[in-house]
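Example record

One chain of 86 residues, shown exactly as stored in the release files.
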Amino acid sequence: MLRIIAWVTFLTIFGLTVILTIPNAHLVQLNYYTGSVQIHLTVLLLITLALGIWLGIIFNLMWVWHLRRDNQRLKQLHKQARRKND
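Predicted structure tokens for this chain:
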């Protein structure tokens, strides 16, 4: 069920991004520290969306890794406590 909700959310955000970017096909100037570049607003919005998705995935994976590590530590402590009580 959670996967379905995640896919529906992803497709909704992606769909809204496409709907908002189609009429905004203007060139914009992207300034950064070493220079600037002109890029279509649609491309810039899609790059920003993709970057946000990847950052979200990375931070969620870090959180899951931390939880798994804590779970392993707690399992070891539980085994030790059971051995001590037996």
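Notes: The chain is about 75% helix and 15% strand.
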